[in-house]
Write a structure and sequence with these properties.
two-stranded parallel sheet, 19% strand, 10 strands, six-stranded mixed beta sheet, alpha+beta
């Protein structure tokens, strides 16, 4: 339970069975829960279905929380405080810190790679969106402020001003969830500020894509395709210079795949280059 509970919880379900509906009905008597079934299979389109059901006048903030996320009791209260302490209403979105993700500060060849792609120097490139739509999570260092300024936000647990979300919406990406969160948040960042919250945390036990070799190749292709869509549609990247940046990034990603010792590396490589 949250120390600051939501006005309403909307569950958007696209599964064929009725298990989610049964759970929602079980809680409906104790909490303001609404269940919606949709034929949309992609995470982006499911989130749009739920987000458009919210009334901005009664709920100024909207949160998107994955079904495998566990919130700390004070997560929503800390994030809501970030909006309410903003007298100018300049904050557009705030994302919680996912505890299982520990991104080290880049160094050596990886830092120089970011430096080349970004065109500027930064200690961590945390929260930045640069080059061919490369998006880096914060490193969450102790010397960083509680609210870490960002150019994009990830889903998992993210809050937006309702009217901003309903104006922009997630792109109609299909399939597995890849970069629709970047596409939306980077558009909101054109007019409002975005932050990762260092002290509002959640737990995400899922994370890794699992499945057949064919599925891994498909996911890798989708990641590169959606990255191109963010670069072109949001950052305005195009032409030979962009294609060279993207080619360089495919090489960088491929080196990372080869350095891992997991199985199915071949399929990920094929998807990355298809």
């Amino acid at each position: 339970m949250q120390t600051r509970p939501p006005t309403e919880t909307i569950i958007v379900d696209s599964s064929a069975g009725g298990d989610s509906k049964t759970v929602a009905e079980r809680w409906a008597g104790r909490l303001p829960v609404r269940y919606e079934h949709t034929v949309h299979r992609s995470a982006a389109q499911q989130r749009n279905v739920g987000g458009m059901l919210v009334e901005p006048a009664s709920t100024p903030l909207i949160a998107f929380i994955d079904d495998d996320i566990t919130l700390r009791p004070d997560t929503s209260a800390r994030i809501c405080d970030a909006f309410e302490n903003d007298a100018a209403s300049a904050v557009g979105g705030v994302a919680a810190r996912i505890e299982e993700i520990h991104r080290p500060q880049p160094s050596g060849w990886s830092w120089w790679y970011y430096r080349l792609q970004a065109g500027y120097a930064d200690p961590t490139y945390g929260g930045k969106l640069f080059g061919p739509a490369i998006n880096c999570l914060p490193c969450y260092r102790d010397d960083e402020p509680e609210l870490i300024s960002a150019q994009w936000l990830n889903t998992g647990c993210v809050f937006y001003r309702t009217e901003l979300f309903q104006k922009e919406l997630f792109p109609t990406f299909e399939g597995h969830s890849f970069m629709e969160d970047v596409h939306l948040s980077a558009r909101i960042a054109r007019t409002h500020r975005l932050y990762f919250h260092r002290n509002a945390s959640c737990s995400h036990r899922d994370g890794a894509v699992v499945g057949t070799e064919r599925a891994l190749a498909r996911h890798a292709r989708m990641r590169m395709r959606n990255q191109r869509a963010v670069a072109a549609g949001v950052l305005g990247k195009h032409g030979p210079a962009f294609e060279l940046q993207l080619l360089f990034h495919r090489v960088f990603v491929s080196i990372g795949i080869l350095r891992r010792r997991g199985q199915n590396r071949r399929q990920e490589l094929l998807g990355t280059w298809t």
